[in-house]
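User: quick one, sequence for these tokens?
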């Protein structure tokens, strides 16, 4: 891993929110950027790509459901053919389907576990051989504070995000010998479309529990992700870095 200007960086869920900020952060080093999303339309992704291209960045976007092993494998096969190296994978795609367990359907459980956790397996498995052969790389998985402390109405989401932490630590052990570091970033309460839908009362309740007394910005998370993929963090693996304003310490 080196801070050259030619790293290829794949960001799942890169069309908007945290993933978009991560893309903009890597653009500052002139990385080649690949965005994957599954929004109903390509609009947000195109907007992000336009911003990147305006900065002279080589960037591509793909709409694919990476919770499907088939779809993810197929897309990553294409990406590996197109790019000589995959230097960084940021597993950031995620969804919520919140409700109390009493009301949670099997579908709500399965959807969240599939998109948030299985996609991390699908994408990591798709790049790990290539990264191992190139003997270097960085993987950052986006977990959540909720995976650590739980949350009312989010048992499916919390389980998926706690799963990411266990997966991260296991893969970190498996590939350390290949010079690959694997870490997780666990954001707290970040201002994106995902949190826009939280009712005002619940938001106020959250804010009261955050020592900094405010929501985080996607850029706060992007900075931690970027740092974990830099030479400055080359001796760090299997960690969960919390970016949460002190909500959990
Ligand atoms: N916003 C927060 O407060 C917060 C807090 C903790 C963790 N997170 C996590 O950070 C990540 C990004 O969150 P965000 O707030 O930017 O969300 P967002 O809703 O703004 O963006 C989600 C992204 O994931 C993509 N995606 C969803 N399902 C997909 C699928 N099946 N295949 C491919 N892409 C898919 C979407 O297309 C989009 O690009 C998520 O994993 C989320 O759980 C967010």
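Assistant:
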């Amino acid at each position: 891993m080196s801070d050259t200007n030619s790293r290829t960086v794949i960001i799942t869920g890169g069309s908007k929110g945290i993933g978009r900020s991560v893309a903009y952060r890597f653009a500052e080093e002139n990385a080649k950027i690949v965005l994957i999303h599954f929004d109903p339309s390509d609009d947000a992704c195109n907007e992000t790509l336009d911003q990147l291209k305006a900065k002279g960045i080589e960037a591509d976007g793909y709409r694919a459901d990476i919770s499907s092993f088939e779809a993810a494998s197929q897309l990553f096969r294409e990406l590996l053919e197109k790019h000589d190296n995959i230097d960084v994978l940021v597993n950031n795609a995620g969804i919520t389907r919140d409700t109390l367990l009493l009301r949670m359907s099997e579908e709500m459980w399965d959807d969240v576990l599939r998109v948030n956790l299985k996609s991390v397996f699908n994408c990591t498995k798709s790049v790990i051989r290539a990264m191992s052969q190139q003997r270097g790389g960085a993987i950052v998985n986006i977990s959540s504070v909720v995976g650590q402390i739980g949350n009312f109405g989010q048992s499916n989401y919390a389980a998926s995000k706690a799963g990411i932490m266990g997966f991260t630590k296991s893969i970190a052990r498996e590939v350390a010998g290949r010079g690959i570091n694997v870490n997780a970033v666990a954001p707290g309460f970040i201002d994106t479309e995902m949190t826009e839908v939280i009712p005002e009362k619940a938001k106020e309740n959250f804010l009261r529990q955050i020592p900094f007394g405010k929501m985080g910005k996607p850029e706060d998370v992007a900075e931690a992700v970027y740092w974990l993929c830099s030479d400055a963090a080359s001796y760090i693996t299997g960690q969960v870095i919390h970016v949460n304003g002190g909500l959990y310490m």
